[in-house]
Design a protein that fits this description.
The chain has about 425 residues and is an all-alpha fold. It has helices at about 5-10, 10-15, 20-50, 55-80, 85-105, 110-140, 145-175, 175-195, 225-240, 240-270, 275-300, 305-325, 335-365, 370-380, 385-395, 400-415, 415-420, 420-425. It is found in: Cell membrane.
């Protein structure tokens, strides 16, 4: 029986019977719900506090620095630790830092340097949390269920984000920014508590079926120096050239998306003439598109080659991104038109990313997954600080719609890399 046939048979019904996977997903859903509320509140807070597009770009650039400079080292550390403990501790720490931010803002004591310090600390914790979450999935699911499992997890977390984005504008308007951010802090703490109850199976069902044993509290044994293990990640990626090509491709995609990520709040205020509710709507529709696309992938994705899904996803994302400039040249219905294209942007993201995330889990031994994922993340976000700074600087000289058109078209054109790469066509 082919792997695609197995994947189709082992759908959502089979996934929800795996209790540890469901427990892990619930914990992740709670943290993502809080994160999505915070993303609106934090962006609104920074713009109100500073009013500077350049500073917003600089803050986002700083957010990527820990991943770039420490990501691989942290990933190697995570491979030596219990992923469960890492997720519990990092969620607890992130809740604490978010809570401090809210209190400082509520007391009128929040300064710009506080934002930089807290951003770096939160990003450092995220460096630990992300590879731990990635290395958890293949320990809970067999290889044949990874595509469906990743798609379902993506859809579930996106639904949580959608719910958070839907209520964020209302919360800011009624409870205020301080209480809105404090809610996120509490949800991080709840997520940590839920994750502490996840029981890992004693026999790993990792992507390479290596039958390595892990229990809910023990870490994998450390056999080599951490620097040797970091070097192994480079050798592994060099051996699997597709992972390197993917990293370069998505580094460029990430760079192109920076203007939209940095300038979304000014875009809503200055171009669409909307408030926090408009920002919630656009962000929510991006997530809604990701949910719809993720659900489709979990049911039908295995019927198509991964390379085809990636190409369609990148083109859809790039062209929809460029079309978000259209409302600037309209006299009415600006927000609804922008909403349609944000929904389409969201639909393109899982098509491009989920097949490649599944491929990473399929080819990478579970004991190396943390550091290989961290290395790939480091490469992918390496140009993000430059993109953030360029976006913030250009926004003072170039109209936002022009920036969105230029970078959206460039993003769509990056799909040519997939078409031209023989490795993509033969492996995926």
């Amino acid at each position: 029986m082919s792997e695609g046939t197995v994947a189709r048979k082992q759908g959502i019904g089979e996934l929800i019977r795996i209790k540890p996977y469901v427990q892990f997903m619930v914990s992740k859903v709670v943290s993502r719900f809080g994160d999505s509320i915070d993303s609106i509140a934090y962006s609104w807070m920074v713009y109100i506090l500073t009013g500077s597009k350049l500073l917003m770009g600089t803050l986002l650039a700083v957010n990527f620095l820990p991943s770039i400079f420490l990501g691989l080292f942290v990933g190697a550390l995570v491979d030596r630790m219990s992923p469960k403990k890492v997720i519990v501790l990092t969620n607890t720490g992130r809740g604490l830092f978010v809570g401090i931010t809210a209190l400082l803002f509520g007391l009128g004591e929040l300064q710009v340097w506080h934002l930089f310090v807290i951003t770096i600390l939160n990003s450092l914790l995220e460096c630990f949390a992300s590879p731990a979450e990635v290395s958890t999935v293949p320990r809970l699911l067999p290889k044949s269920m990874l595509l469906s499992g990743n798609a379902m997890a993506s859809s579930a977390t996106r639904v949580a984000e959608l719910a958070g984005l839907a209520v964020a504008g209302t919360l800011i308007a009624t409870a205020g920014i301080t209480w809105t951010i404090l809610i996120d802090a509490g949800l991080f703490a709840l997520s940590a508590l839920l994750m502490s109850r996840v029981g890992y199976p004693k026999t790993s069902t990792s992507s390479n079926n290596d039958n390595t044993s892990f229990d809910s509290s023990d870490s994998p044994p450390a056999r080599k120096s951490i620097f040797s293990e970091m070097t192994e990640a480079f050798h592994f990626m060099r051996k699997h050239v597709l992972l390197l090509i993917v990293s370069i491709l998505f580094a460029f995609v990430n760079f192109c998306l920076m203007p939209f990520n940095v300038l979304r709040t000014p875009y809503v205020i200055e171009t669409l003439h909307a408030g926090a509710g408009g920002l919630s709507l656009l962000s929510g529709l991006i997530v809604a598109g990701m949910v719809l696309s993720g659900l489709w992938l979990s049911h039908r994705g295995s019927n198509y080659r991964k390379s085809v899904l990636v190409i369609v996803g990148i083109v859809m994302l790039g062209l929809s991104y460029a079309m978000t400039a259209l409302p600037a040249y309209m006299t009415s219905y600006q927000l609804p038109v922008a909403a349609v294209f944000c929904l389409m942007m969201g639909m393109g993201i899982p098509l491009a990313t989920t097949p490649l995330a599944s491929y990473l889990m399929e080819v990478t031994p579970s004991e190396m997954l943390g550091r290989v994922y961290a290395l790939q993340t480091m490469l992918v976000v390496s140009v993000a600080p430059l993109g953030s700074l360029v976006s913030g600087a250009l926004a003072d000289w170039v109209a936002l719609p022009i920036l969105f058109i230029v970078f959206g078209v460039l993003l769509a054109m990056s799909a040519v890399l997939v078409l031209l790469s023989k490795t993509f066509r033969t492996v995926l």
